[in-house]
Every structure is written in C-alpha cells, then in structure tokens.
Amino acid sequence: MSRRGRSTSGRLPLVLLLPALIGLAFLLIPLIGLLAKAPWSTLPAKLHSADVWQALRLSLVCATSATAVCLVLGVPLAWLLARGGLPGRSVIRAFVTVPLVLPPVVGGVALLLVLGRRGLVGQYLDSWFGISLPFTTAGVIVAEAFVAMPFLVISVEGALRAADPRYEEAAATLGAGRWTTFRRVTLPSIAPGIVAGTVLCWARALGEFGATITFAGNFPGRTTTMPLAVYLALETDPDVAVVLSLVLLLVSVVVLASLRERWISGLQ
C-alpha cells in the first residue's frame, strides 16, 4: 500500500470521531466509577469476609461444573451442526443459539416448567428417582449450563467449519474409524476453538443471574452465587457489592485478555 493510501486510511472524519469517543466514554465511565468508588482501604478485610468467599467458592464450583457439562454435550452438538448433514440444520442451530438472545429470566421460567417438581420432566425425576433440581446447587449448574452452552457450541462449530477436512479424509483412507479420526485428528485441529469456547462458556456461567435466581432461588451457601450476592449486598452492604463486582470485573478482563490473540488472529 502506498504512503498516500496509508495516510488516508488513518484519518478519521469528525462525524465518526465524535460518536466514537462518546461510545468509548459510555463504556468506560461506569467501570471507572466502579474503581473510583471501591473501598480500597477496607478491601482486604472485605475480601476475607465469609460471605464473599462463600459466594466466590460456590460461583467457581458451579461455573466449572456447568462448563464441564457444556463440554460433554456441546462439543458433540457442535460437530452435529457442522458435519452432521441433518435436514433442518438451520432451524436446529437457531434453537441452539436462542439462549444467547433469550432473557435469562425467561430461560429460568422455561427450566422450571420442564424440570420443576411438577414440570414435564421434573415430575418423573422426583417420583421415580427422588431428584428435585429447583432451588438446589445442582439447579444452579443446570441454569448456568443452559445459558452458557451456546457460547461453546458456536465457537467449536466455527472451528470445525474452518478446519481442513482433507486430514480427516486421509485418516479414513488409512483405515481409521470415525471415533479414532475424531479423537486423533479432529479434536487436535479444533483445540484452539474448544479452548476459546470453554473460556467464554465459563465466564458466562460465572456471571449468570436471571436464570439462576428464577430456577435455583437465592439461598446463601447453596444457590447464592456472586451475581446474586452483589444484588443482595446492594441493599445491606454496598461496599461488599462493590468488592464482588470488582472480582467479577477482574475475571472478565482476564478472560478477554486471554482470548485477545485468538480474536486478532481470526480477523487477519
């Protein structure tokens, strides 16, 4: 590219610069306000609070468990969407990605209607096996997995579509079965997509609020995750709410920083 082309492309018209700066301020000022209002002098004491660690521990356990569920179910689902050749794949994909745009509270209501003690499936889980998911820690995991799984599926499906199928075809011609080809060839080739989807899935599960409070309730030590603890603390101890918000903000920044190189390489 010529010097003139580079200099022209580097200019930003004022009509674009002004709204861009306003948009940047709109996104940054609330975060700056959170940092400015943080109780830095009492932060160590707040972090060592039993309520904070209880919510943090429960959030980490539930988000990790939900991510494990999403990996077990989501990777095969992504493969089905990318390579399955099923009729009506676009419709299936639309339903898979609905939780991305569905209000989480609606997702929680849907889970209650299906997995509640009188739900379509929950009534049989309760009467046959004595399993009741709503308002339990397991219910938190289910709610988080429901909301977070599309992030994993989309990432893995994109990686599968971008992978070169000739390697799988070569493995098949050498006598490898479908499972062996998937395990030894396909999975290593899409590993970056799985890692990116897993991280996004985990971060989304960690920050889930609407479906969790609707399906699992808010019981300290059992279903009160960090987002729910923030909501409660705003009414009783705003400083604790700010501390919990800072922890979630730090996790979000770490997640985005860890995926930055993959996003940049994907755009090039």
UniProtKB/TrEMBL annotation:
Which molecular function GO terms apply here?
molybdate ion transmembrane transporter activity
Name the residues that span the membrane: 12-36, 56-82, 94-115, 135-156, 185-205, 240-259
Keywords (A to Z) from UniProt: Cell membrane, Membrane, Molybdenum, Transmembrane, Transmembrane helix, Transport
Residue ranges annotated for the ABC transmembrane type-1 domain, each copy included: 56-259
Please give the superkingdom of this protein's source. Bacteria
Q: How does it sit in the membrane?
A: Multi-pass membrane protein
- Principal location listed in the UniProt entry: membrane
Secretion signal span: none
Q: A cellular component term (GO) from this record?
A: plasma membrane
Localization, UniProt:
Cell membrane
The role this protein plays is: Part of the binding-protein-dependent transport system for molybdenum; probably responsible for the translocation of the substrate across the membrane.
Name the protein family: Belongs to the binding-protein-dependent transport system permease family. CysTW subfamily.
- PANTHER family cross-referenced by the UniProt entry: MOLYBDENUM TRANSPORT SYSTEM PERMEASE PROTEIN MODB
What is this protein's record name? Molybdenum transport system permease
Q: Which organism is it from?
A: Kribbella jiaozuonensis
This protein's gene is called modB
